[in-house]
Amino acid sequence: MADGCFSDSADFPDLGESAETLGLDAREGTSDARFAVGKDGVRAIAATGDGKVEFVGFERHTLALVTSSLGYPAYYPVPALGEPAPIKAMLMDLDGTTVHSEQFWIWIIEQSTASLLDDAKFELEDADVAHVSGHSVSEHLQYCIAKYCPDKSLEEARRYYFEHTDREMAAILDGKGRPGAFTPAPGIKEFLLELKAMGVKLGLVTSGLFEKAYPEILDVFKTLGMGNPEDFYDSIITAGTAVGRGKAGTMGELPPKPHPWLYAESLTIGLGMKFEERNATLGIEDSGAGICSLRLAGIRSVGLNDGNIDDSGTGGLCQFRIDSFEEILAEIKALH
Question: Of 139, 173, 207, which closes a domain?
């Protein structure tokens, strides 16, 4: 388990001793050519396996560069995690963590790409998975455009995406959708109820747009017999509503995971906790994008082993790795 406290000799202060110990890929310079090892006080540079986040180590601080296929990268200071405290809040991802739906949404991306190519037999490759899950819809689609159909536009891809999504979501809510699209994660009901009984604040945080994410959680709560999710959770944060011609939207395609904002908003606005209380918070994620988002928000992360954390090269950024919710309950109780 990482503790977030490192000596001044660390290559990446407040993050880790070296690229090797963090499981990151060492680099000589950042992808935007802004920083290079040995220049301007830079000690080391490393990137996650999927290249979505790059870390720049200085003598006493570390910066994180969140790259962007849409042309808007951003730098963030990496905050120290500090000492663990009794847990006051639990923040949880939706797809792949609370509900097993990743394969469904990857299939929607696949169908959207097939429509762009006018090829009903098109299939994504295994190597694509880390790039079409955990990030925003537009990031997923832009990746597919760049790889498979560079002559197509993001606007066209998004149109196909929402056509497929609207059709499938309507069918699911009508009880006629793709079998197994939304399946509650094993043990999730017992886990949530036990946390609730302990007085832990609960936040649901997803990079999914509202129109695709909210029907998911409604469907899952209906399956579990848990009533209205808005009455159960203390905070539900999505990536907003989609913007389009003739339709007003909210900003949600550029700042989702691995940017820190969704988790930061859930903690401070949704749950009403101060930044200084982040050490009393845990976040559970199955994706590399989510793990990076939590880390950049200064929140200790729990990585589920059945997601894409290993494929994305972010395992070294987790404070815990678990196979089941029962394991993290034991850690929570040990802190109380």
Answer: 173
Q: Report d(CA 116, CA 118) in Å as an integer.
A: 6
155's CB contacts (< 8 A; 6+ apart) are none
Q: Let me know if 181 is exposed, middle or buried by CB neighbors in 10 A (0-12, 13-18, 19+).
A: buried
- Identify the band that residue 8 occupies on the pLDDT scale cut at 50, 70 and 90: low
Looking up residue 196, the CATH number of its domain turns out to be: 3.40.50.1000
Q: What span, in angstroms and rounded, lies between the C-alpha atoms of 330 and 207?
A: 28
CB 64 within 8 A of CB 76: yes
Rounded to two decimals, the pTM is 0.88
Tell me what the mean pLDDT of segment 75-92 comes to. 94
- Tell whether the model's pLDDT for residue 215 goes beyond 90: no
251 and 306 share one domain = yes
Residue 316 DSSP SS3: helix
From the number of C-beta atoms within 10 Å of its C-beta (0-12, 13-18, 19+), residue 225 rates as exposed
Q: Which residue has the tokens 């388990």?
A: 1
- Asked if 167 and 190 sit in the same domain, the reply is no
Q: Which domain holds residue 58?
A: 19-77
